[in-house]
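Title: Comparing notes on inverse folding

I've been comparing how different people in this forum approach sequence design from structure. To keep things fair, I'm posting one structure and asking everyone to reply with a full sequence. Here's the target:
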């Protein structure tokens, strides 16, 4: 089971004979990415703050008439720091502080665009179908405290920030939304989750419905980006529309568990990159989240208080 292993990648590397390992990995994952030498200052910061830091280089085919662009992407996968029954304000504050530290370290690596995981300021509590306290994590996409924090980080580090949150709009409607903030600190816009799962413990339609922002693409100093939130990755035409609208990099911030989607995880973003000739960035949250009250999802299973293990698999960044 996914909860009992580190990652598929680690199993392959530990159990395939060295003489054929790279060939097998190339067949499964494509051409090997360059491992980047990261600044010692950044590595030291990650060690002090207790998070893992990796860097890879992925090249597009060189053109004859235009000089290549180098864009450095930061993709953040993290787990909760406090129990899910801790006060809402304390949970948010702990994650704000954690992400601020990670973003500062990303800046030491020269990152231009950083993206966090789906609903990064809260537990992924939509399995519970409880209104409180989970709806209290919702905030304004334009004026909320998380957006204010990200605006400050964007300006301070000259970095585009993609911040997926639980949004509460002026009409008091809840949405699953990614806020896109320019490296100048300006809110460029938002992209709402446009495919909502209704399977197993993914009871998200209890809280929000399909988004109404279409397939938005945002022009930034570092390239044209789009955000295909979580479940939208299962729909090839969804990926396609971002490409039709001019995206060069499409982020897929997610919160998904091993029992449901891990076999598809390493395939979908790569397939989208191949089919649409852009880069894709898959991000998942990490760890197992335990909720105070047990819940069921009308699927015949016994009541439980965990949704499953968020496997935080190795990120996907691919382009044809």
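Reply #1:
Here's my take.
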């Amino acid at each position: 089971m996914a909860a009992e292993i580190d990652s598929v990648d680690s199993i392959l590397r530990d159990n395939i004979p060295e003489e054929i390992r790279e060939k097998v990995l190339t067949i499964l994952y494509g051409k090997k990415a360059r491992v980047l030498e990261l600044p010692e200052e950044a590595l030291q910061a990650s060690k002090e703050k207790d998070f893992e830091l990796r860097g890879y280089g992925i090249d597009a085919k060189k053109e004859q008439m235009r000089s290549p662009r180098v864009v450095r992407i930061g993709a953040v996968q993290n787990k909760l720091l406090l129990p899910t029954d801790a006060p809402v304000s304390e949970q948010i504050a702990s994650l704000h502080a954690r992400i601020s530290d990670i973003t500062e370290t990303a800046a030491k690596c020269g990152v231009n665009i950083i993206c966090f995981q789906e609903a990064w300021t809260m537990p992924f509590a939509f399995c519970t179908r409880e209104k409180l306290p989970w709806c209290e994590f919702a905030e304004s996409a334009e004026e909320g405290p998380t957006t204010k924090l990200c605006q400050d980080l964007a300006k301070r580090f000259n970095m585009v920030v993609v911040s997926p949150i639980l949004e509460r709009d002026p009409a008091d409607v809840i949405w699953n939304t990614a806020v896109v903030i320019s490296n100048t600190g300006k809110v460029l816009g938002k992209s709402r989750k446009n495919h909502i799962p209704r399977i197993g413990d993914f009871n998200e339609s209890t809280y929000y419905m399909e988004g109404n922002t279409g397939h938005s693409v945002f022009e930034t100093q570092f390239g044209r980006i789009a955000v295909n939130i979580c479940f939208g990755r299962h729909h090839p035409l969804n990926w396609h529309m971002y490409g039709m609208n001019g995206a060069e990099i499409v982020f897929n911030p997610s919160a998904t568990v091993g029992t449901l989607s891990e076999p598809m995880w390493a395939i979908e973003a790569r397939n989208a990159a191949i089919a649409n000739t852009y880069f894709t960035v898959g991000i998942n949250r990490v760890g197992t989240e335990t909720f105070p009250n047990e819940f069921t999802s009308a699927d015949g299973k016994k009541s439980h208080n965990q949704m499953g293990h968020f496997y935080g698999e190795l990120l996907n960044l691919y382009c044809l």
